């Protein structure tokens, strides 16, 4: 029981830190609020889908920006999709970078777009790593016989 | 093929009016948004169908399908939400069409509304916004 309590405290602190650092926003809370007995892992399922979709979009963006003559409309379309996905899972920092990225697409600045893409990749990798750690903690709590604490 | 013919009821054997399950068409090319909107509408009791672009939404209606509400994304390949909404209204589709868009520009949202939307929200839709749609649908039905 002490072990479960320890895990639960760790989960609460870690989740709060994600909000505090702006890694996730209230949309992430909305995903958890949609979980119920018929969809107990809904948040993890949606975020996992986001990971798959994001990998595809990042590959497409890399390809598009590697072209000699960059089609900025194509780049913008991918960034728009990435912005939509990231905002729908509450990936606040990734979403904010996408907003800046779109401005750079409008300016048709290849160099700055490439730099922004690198930042997006780093921020996305950080989000992915942190969320995977969070979901791992949830699994450990459940396997130890505990329940996942709710965060206000 | 999902057909929702409105929220009107029918009489059961014991004389109590039954409400038919309402139906929602989710039109979005983003799989994450599709999943979120599907769960929200299902939780509110809707039967849902999901398509990836505006042309598929128009084709469904051309083939005789109807829904109680359509959640329409703005930017999609093949046919976007503005074009699809205009086509549906031109076909005489009077279903509640709710725009959901990641666009922040007022001018673009205005163009979307002028295409014939009943409402427009920033995506993803949340549960409170979806409940407000159900209230409006129930009011129209009464």
From TrEMBL, chain A:
Pfam families reported in the protein's UniProt record: Hpt
Annotated GO CC locations: cytosol; nucleus
Superkingdom in the source lineage: Eukaryota
Alphabetized UniProt keyword annotations: Cytokinin signaling pathway, Cytoplasm, Kinase, Nucleus, Phosphoprotein, Transferase, Two-component regulatory system
Modified residues (Phosphohistidine): 80
Keyword Methyltransferase among UniProt keywords: no
GO molecular function, one term: histidine phosphotransfer kinase activity
Ranges of residues in domain HPt: 39-148
Record SUPFAM superfamilies: Histidine-containing phosphotransfer domain, HPT domain
Function of the molecule: Functions as a two-component phosphorelay mediators between cytokinin sensor histidine kinases and response regulators (B-type ARRs). Plays an important role in propagating cytokinin signal transduction.
Domain topic, free-text comment: Histidine-containing phosphotransfer domain (HPt) contains an active histidine that mediates the phosphotransfer.
Protein name per UniProt: Histidine-containing phosphotransfer protein
Organism classification: Eukaryota, Viridiplantae, Streptophyta, Embryophyta, Tracheophyta
TrEMBL record, chain B:
CDD domains the record matches: REC_hyHK_CKI1_RcsC-like
Coiled-coil ranges from the UniProt annotation: none
4-aspartylphosphate PTM positions: 73
Response regulatory domain residues: 23-138
Gene3D superfamilies: 3.40.50.2300
SMART domains cross-referenced by the UniProt entry: REC
Matches recorded under InterPro entries: CheY-like_superfamily (IPR011006), Sig_transdc_resp-reg_receiver (IPR001789), ST_Response_Regulator (IPR052048)
Keyword presence, Phosphoprotein: yes
Keyword field: Phosphoprotein
Entry annotated with the keyword Phosphoprotein: yes
Annotated GO biological process: phosphorelay signal transduction system
Designated name of the protein: Signal transduction response regulator, receiver domain
Organism lineage string: Eukaryota, Viridiplantae, Streptophyta, Embryophyta, Tracheophyta
